[in-house]
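Chapter summary example.
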Amino acid sequence: MLGNRIKELRLQKGITQEQLAQHLNVAKSTIGMWENEKREPNFKMLIRIADYFDCSIDYLLGRTNDPMTK
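The structure predicted for these 70 residues follows.
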């Protein structure tokens, strides 16, 4: 679920994996692993991702379908 949400938000924003990686200061391959659910970001990174996409961590984790529920 988390990987799908990250990819969905990234595509909605119209940015590449490389652009997201640069903003979050991680490798492009890390973004790919998250999106393919081979790895998961740690808690601090979840906060950064949620802040970047202006959504809740609960939305990223699939606990709600409303990205603005905080």
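To summarize the output: The chain is about 60% helix and 0% strand.
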